Amino acid sequence: MPSPAGEPRVEPYRIKVVEPIRLLSREEREAAIHRAHFNLFNLTSDDIFIDLLTDSGTSAMSDRQWAAMMIGDETYAGSRNFRHFEETARRITGFPYILPTHQGRAAENILFSLLGGEGKVIPNNMHFDTTQEHVLRNHSKPVNLAIREAYDPALDHPFKGNMDLERLEHLLAEQGHHVPLVMATITNNTGGGQPVSLENLRGISRIAHAHGVPFYLDMCRWAENAYFIQQREPGMRGRSIAEIGREIFALADGATMSAKKDGLVNIGGLLATRDRELFDRMRELLIVYEGFPTYGGLARRDLEAMAVGLEEAMETDYLEHRTGQVAWLWSQLHDAGIPLMSPPGGHGVYIDARSFLPHLAHEGLPGQTLAIEIYREGGVRTVEIGGVMFGNDSSGETALELVRLAIPRRVYTMSHLAHVARTVQAVWERRKSVRGFRMTEASEHLRHFTAKFGPLDH
Ligand SMILES: *Cc1c(COP(=O)(O)O)cnc(C)c1O
Asked: What is the pLDDT of residues 255-271, one digit of tens each?
């Protein structure tokens, strides 16, 4: 499937079912964004031509997955679909105890309800927004320990998702007794979908365990991360994604996963551990929040589709095409001079909004403004990852002001991505006349979902 450098990627699939989309007229788009109070989360799908809001739960399922849906055995307890799901997740991860959840945050809820608490400190390379929220809700303190390079968008580094091991060592030496677990997010979504190297994961595991602290993975995009390890880490070319995965998971004591990413399903997640005693307590909470342990908030047909999706996400043709699509869009924008997070990550292209719109002071919300302008220009929905999303956090890190163009899995063709590239380039051409926005209404928690915006008065 390889395409020559710079050429569009050839899709390793053909289209069997189609869903019409339509680009609204400029006037209709203006009306829609006003109605949405300039918050792109308030747009409806009919307003949107190409939706790059998220890669979460937006994948196209394969014919094998749809076939799997038809063999759902909707038994409350002891469904054979659960057994297939459990057996698959065990084989891929090596974790002995697996619980299904309806999505990633449900697994986080259970994990942090049990391990969080007053005065606890939770290190991560970079907390994802829901992870951070669950840490905070359990009165613990999230600490981001990504390497310094992670905060320099233009800097090229093969494993920008890495954790700063010196800072981790220091934190555990000083406050180890307050740290119930160390977490690493693979890939680092908040920091540009950047991978963590196997070497770095080995270091995190060694340091955490030397201090008697368990190490958990946020494994949402573990297959993309493993693909980058295979491609970029010395000595890894000859190893399969499955082999690399087994080594990653062997370093950890458990994991949370949103299967809406590298599970290739529209809904689903999991929670895994090696700790039998903790597992029993997890299972109790699962029953309270999600349902019986053999369905965990999902229809049994969803478990079957997830079992198939977890396998498909490890296929080399698929991973090469997927990361290739991201890299192609990245190079289209990069060649036009647009400031981007470098190098391209696994699931999206991240624009450095502060460099794109340097004339907007922080109050001008450059990230939110750029996302609004990209929608106005070409009906493309993106998302701000910056001051609006993380402004209220207690870790005090709002260093990055990004707009993410997340690529749904197996959904868009290269010509869709060419439209996206033209749209962003058109905003780039008129960037000097772009005016800023301000927040007119905001809630206390996860405010980016509900905030309202209005143009800054000039
Ligand atoms: C999506 C995501 C989550 C949360 O998963 P949901 O399925 O949306 O609840 C957690 N961590 C990371 C890194 C994610 O990308």
From this structure: 999 999 999 999 999 99
